[in-house]
């Protein structure tokens, strides 16, 4: 199990005549855990859904878990948990044959349930994943891909340092995060 949290500091700026006054309004702490999929949590996991219009952005979790079974030597599916609730799902492909020289792992699936989107969980889950890839998998790079038009995912990945490398995978645009930039 991987635990991760981030504090989001919401600092608002108020102007008092010519002096800028900085006040700390709010501190939110988001604590997420990435738990392995087990017989206890897989039902909850396959019940997670994205919005209808996001259906083409990610495979269903039931399909992903079927793939996880097929390619079980290389895949690592995780439930994204907030307190005791599962709020999302991600799956890594750690098949190093593809990128043996570079030590790449693939973020193959990533979703936050429609009822939990926009709360900061996606960003924190990505940061947890980056930490896990760096410290546990000890890979050098993470690869992911997004469907053109999925601007939320594209912006989120970009803001975390993922850069398009010019490749396309089917109809998806590939992005790479270098975990040890020079
Ligand atoms: C992409 C996804 C995982 C993001 O998860 P999330 O929990 O909603 O993301 P967060 O709340 O952490 O927000 C991350 C950023 O996206 C922005 N964002 C989230 N939802 C948004 C929306 N509907 N419209 C515009 N911006 C949005 C947030 O403002 C935030 O930006 P900031 O950190 O610069 O303020 C989620 O939208 C999802 O599951 N989408 C469907 C499946 C999918 O596209 N998966 C990715 C496949 S590549």
What distinguishing features does this structure have?
single chain, 182 residues, alpha+beta, Aminopeptidase, 8-stranded mixed sheet, 4 helices, 8 strands, globular, binds coenzyme A
What does this structure look like?
The chain has a single domain, classed as Aminopeptidase (3-Layer(aba) Sandwich). The protein has 4 helices and 8 strands; from the N terminus they run E-E-H-H-E-E-E-H-E-H-E-E. An 8-stranded mixed β-sheet has the order 1-2-3-4-5-6-8-7. The protein is of the alpha+beta class and 182 residues long. The structure holds coenzyme A (COA). Coenzyme A (COA) binds next to strand 5, helix 3 and helix 4.
Q: Write down the CATH topology.
A: Aminopeptidase
* CATH top level assignment: Alpha Beta
The number of distinct β-strands equals: 8
Low-confidence stretches: 7-25
Rg, alpha carbons:
18 Å
Quaternary state of the chains: single chain
Draw up the topology in text.
Blueprint lengths: L1 E15 L2 E18 L5 H5 L14 H10 L4 E8 L2 E9 L10 E9 L8 H15 L5 E6 L4 H9 L3 E7 L2 E7 L4
Parallel strand pairs: 5-6
Antiparallel strand pairs: 1-2, 2-3, 3-4, 4-5, 6-8, 7-8
The structure holds coenzyme A.
The site of coenzyme A has 20 residues, from strand 5, helix 3 and helix 4.
Summarize the entry for a quick read.
The chain is an alpha+beta fold. It has helices at 42-46, 61-70, 121-135, 151-159, and strands at 2-16, 19-36, 75-82, 85-93, 104-112, 141-146, 163-169, 172-178.
